[in-house]
Write a structure and sequence with these properties.
It contains 17 helices and 24 strands. The protein is α/β, with parallel strands linked by helices. The strands form 5 sheets. The protein has a 6-stranded mixed sheet. Strands 2-1-3-10-4 form a 5-stranded mixed sheet, sandwiched between helices. The protein has a 5-stranded mixed sheet with strand order 7-6-8-5-9, with helices on both faces. The radius of gyration is 25 Å and the shape is globular. The protein starts with a strand and ends with a helix.
Length: 528
């Protein structure tokens, strides 16, 4: 007999509606389930979304419960999911898709104010704030958080003259037709958030396979494409992005809205004959509409936040087609148990920027503070790794300058003796491991990430330039896409070994003046 599936959900009225909808859908395919209510960071942190770094703000706690196997699957508003998928916890779009429109809930006292001039309008969405500036520039946008009924009451209590909400949520809760007589709902004719109106089910792949008949393949694909637009632009809930695909009799319509870091707005609507052509062309169309150059990055998007920011300043739109995927190898329960052991060690050796980022973000996600590291020695392999540690507030990092493997071993043997235990924080493989026998102290290898070769072939724009940051990315790209795709392309590289690997294949490349400098590389892209 199949076990009862546990559905992880937030506790708001809308989240519970979504969970009950999933429970009823599972019952129709003879799968019994029960709800498990989980509080997320987004339910407790009421800062403005634009001030909160990161992606997947409302979903991380649910993902941790999935990792810990306290629940079997989680139900989300698809638009709340992070733009990059977790390999261990994929998601699929779940329908039916509700109406995608936003609505203005307006107090009837202001019904004659067609321009919304000087009205206080509540919204928590940077996209809606940007759209208010475009369509109703005389209105005042004020921060608004809380569940749907709470937000509606803000208008009744006259804290706000109006608020903006997703029409889908109002309809699912049965509130649209039950608004107080003092309030009026007005549809807004603008592009809404990627995946608005779509639900998402997240679980391990074997669970998704078990419930496969719940999913509409076309809706799932639309959700994946809309979410990829957000990933392409490098962001999450703090960005002002609208992307919406609508099926029509003669094909598919794509609507796009984006306010960039310079507060410049791009807004267009275009039709495509098929989802295949839409997926292949929209990224070039986005770049062309903005007047920007398009640059393909062959690294994981998560490693390129700074690059996106630099590129935006040079009117370059970056798209990430990672050939090497860096994935967290941390299981929350195991991380918690291992951390107690790590706290007893004298030093933490970080092997890469990925090691630093994933280790510290897991501390944040599990509500651990960094105080226990203050009396530890923090050792970096490489200057970039040291800088990443400093980004998390630690300045005393060894060594003081770039060090070779030999120099690092000498440092460790000078400061630590046999019987001391040191944490080696990194990936599944670290070049330092082969020198383990030359180090007097005991190195405890703590794996926080793993790398995999990307297998999936994504649509590739003919107009885009492409950049490579290491020879492995070149090798993987050619194995997936074929060598011919690079013919007649502008190819940019960030170091001499990468340049050599491409030149050996017969390609001319343009190399950053200073090896490892994205600023130099982007200047090359800007000029060509």
């Amino acid at each position: 007999m199949n076990k009862i599936l546990k559905i992880g959900t937030r506790g708001s009225e809308l989240a519970l509606w979504q969970a009950e909808h999933l429970k009823a859908s599972l019952a129709k395919i003879n799968i019994e389930s029960e709800l498990v209510i989980i509080t997320t960071k987004g339910d407790k942190d009421y800062r403005p979304l634009k001030d909160i770094a990161g992606d997947g703000f409302f979903t991380k706690a649910l993902e941790n419960e999935l990792f810990a196997e306290n629940v079997d699957l989680a139900i989300h508003s698809c638009k709340d999911l992070a733009s990059m998928k977790l390999a261990q916890l994929p998601w699929r779009g779940f329908g039916p898709r509700a109406v995608t429109k936003d609505v203005l809930i307006l107090h009837r006292d202001h019904i004659d104010n067609k321009e919304l001039a000087d009205l206080k309008i509540g919204t928590s969405s940077p996209r809606r704030v940007a759209q208010l500036k475009k369509y109703f520039p005389k209105a005042q946008a004020l921060e608004l958080r809380g569940n749907v009924p709470t937000r509606i009451n803000k208008v009744l209590s006259e804290d706000y003259d109006a608020i903006i909400l997703a029409k889908a949520g109002l309809m699912r809760l049965g509130l649209l037709d039950k608004l107080p007589s003092d309030l009026l709902a007005i549809d807004l004719d603008w592009t809404t958030a990627p995946c608005q109106g779509i639900l998402a089910i997240q679980a391990k792949q074997e669970i998704l396979n078990r419930i496969d008949e719940l999913f509409d393949p076309e809706l799932d694909r639309i959700a994946q494409i809309e979410k990829s637009v957000l990933a392409y632009l490098g962001g999450g809930c703090h960005m002002a992005v609208g992307a919406q695909i609508e099926k029509q009799d003669d094909g598919y319509q794509f609507s796009f809205f984006f306010e960039n870091e310079k507060q410049q707005i791009q807004d267009f609507v275009k039709k495509y004959n098929s989802l295949e052509s839409l997926e292949a062309e929209i990224f070039s169309d986005i770049a062309e509409a903005s007047g920007s150059k398009e640059l393909i990055l062959t690294h994981n998007l998560v490693n390129h936040k700074k690059v996106y920011s630099l590129a935006a300043g040079k009117n370059i739109l970056c798209r990430s087609l990672p050939m090497i995927e860096v994935k967290s190898a941390v299981h929350p329960r195991e991380f918690h148990e291992k951390l107690e052991e790590l706290k007893k060690l004298k030093a933490f050796i970080f092997t890469s920027q990925n090691a630093v980022k994933i280790f510290f973000l897991e501390l944040v996600n599990q509500n651990f503070d960094f105080d226990f590291l203050k009396d530890k020695s923090l050792i970096s392999i490489g200057a970039a790794t040291a800088k990443k540690i400093k980004d998390f507030g630690f300045d005393s990092i060894q060594p003081d300058s770039e060090s070779s493997s030999k120099g690092l071993i000498e440092l460790l043997n000078k400061d630590y003796k046999a019987g001391d235990s040191l944490a080696l924080i990194g990936g599944e493989q670290s070049h330092l491991l082969k020198y383990r026998n030359q180090v007097n102290a005991k190195l405890l290898h703590f794996v926080v990430y793993r790398t995999e070769k990307t297998q999936k072939k994504h649509p590739f724009s003919e107009k885009a330039a492409i950049s490579f940051a290491n020879p492995k990315a070149v090798e993987n790209f050619v194995s997936v896409y074929g060598k011919e795709v690079l013919n007649n392309k502008n190819i940019f590289v960030i170091g001499p070994s990468t340049a050599a690997s491409l030149e050996a294949l017969g390609f001319d490349v343009q190399q950053a003046k200073n090896s490892g400098s994205w600023e130099d590389l982007l200047q090359l892209v800007e000029k060509n």
